[in-house]
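Dear all,

This email documents one entry for the complex benchmark we are building for the journal club exercise. For each entry we list the sequence lines for every component of the assembly. Then comes the predicted three-dimensional structure of the complex as a token string, followed by one or two observations. Please use this as the template for your own entries, and keep the labels exactly as they appear.
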Amino acid sequence: MRENAIEVRDLKLSYVSRQSYSIKQTLFQFKKSERNVVEALKGVSFDAVRGEVLGVVGRNGSGKSTLLRTLAGVFSPDSGTIDLKGNSISLLSLGTGFQPEITGRENILLNGMVLGFSEKEILEKQEEIIAFSELGKFIDMPVRTYSSGMNSKLAFSITAILETDIILVDEVLSVGDTKFRKKSYNKMRQLIDDEDRTALIVSHQENTLRDLCDRVLWLHDGEVRMLGEANEVLDRYMEFMK
Amino acid sequence: MFQRFVRDFKKYWPYALRSAKSTLKAEVAGSYLNWLWWILNPISFMLIYTVIFGVIFKASEQYFPIYVFIGLTMWDFFNHVVTHSVKMIKSNKNIVTKVYIPKFILIVSDMIVNAIKMFISFGVVAVMMIVFRVPVGWGIFYILPVLAGLFMTTFAAGNLIMHFGVYIQDLSNIVNIVLRLVFYFTGIFYDIEKRIPVPYKYWVLRINPLAAYITEARYALLYGRITHWGLLIAWVVLSLILDVVTVRVVYKNENGYVKVI
């Protein structure tokens, strides 16, 4: 039995849509606008073993993306704990945060640094990232000039080449054109096949999940409906979704 | 919390620096006169104020153009950081929704950008001091505690405005009005000590930290001394306390910001 890479206990997170107010609303609207509380995660617990590939399925709005973002540290949970055992983690999702006005090359640096890599580490891998992204001379142009496909290619390349211990994948297996998709799929395989790398993959593509994952976590309305061997969970899930 | 601040600061400082560099680079790349604007902009305003207040209103302050330039240079720093901080979270939406980053780092990065511009502007001040033959001694180094105070006050103000800017949509309107008010009560183009009558001038210096810093910076650079040590120290200490309080507020709420935008 290998040690756990992620331990999540009773994770709760709700969006209080504390919307932003204008001064006028606050002053002249005596009627208190109702506070919408959306419970996105209602006590989720699970473990992921080191090296495992865990798929996450569920309907739209069942809390999959929220779970991934909470693991990545973007949200802090209302209650419950997340223990990453000191592993580095990165969230791979469509269109990572780029600064539009600066060049792709500089965005690689910024992105890597925000993920916690040192400048030296990034510079060592920069050429590899650029080569993988297939952006060519566009890499020295401002990111605002990129097409959305190019954007996602660069985003994917950065996270894929700057390897973290845990990668969270949110629906990015369909990046770019057919050729790049194939390439990124293979790269993804190679990444998650690594014995030591743990991956969480959110996807609606059943085949992908069956192909890649060891186990699957089924989220339903912010709760764990089922967690188990991939094919078993997916069969039940597919039946449910009919 | 203090330990967390120091740790985060160390960890993300390279990012803040790199991000500031990129911002400056992008600014330069996007305009014809590029970095010259960082000098041209304050010089133009200095000329405008010198003509209006020096010639038309017959201001009698010694070295009046330098006097105005020091005020403008420091004011611009504060003004830009505070103005940007209103929309700081929104304009960095790309980053804050994808990874965790301590939000005060965004303020730090913007402060680096504007501090670099301020130092370039101070370079112009140095040239002007040579041209006007201002006698210079070791006293000019009194500018250092003044700038330290300016940084600490700006950091606290930036954090606070950034926090409320997330929740209040029209905060930028209010901030602009308040900034304009503070601008006129900071004595950019007049001497608070001379022009504002006796009991009030002390109040302006006590309530408005910018007025205190700019006044002291002028004394430091032009006459090599500090006039109100007590006031300066009081503002530095108070700003430090406000830094702690505002960083705490931001830490406590920062992961909620993402849910609002």
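Observations: Chain A has two domains: 1-27+34-87+165-242, 100-164. Strands of chain A lie at 4-16, 37-49, 53-57, 79-83, 89-93, 166-170, 198-202, 215-220, 223-229.
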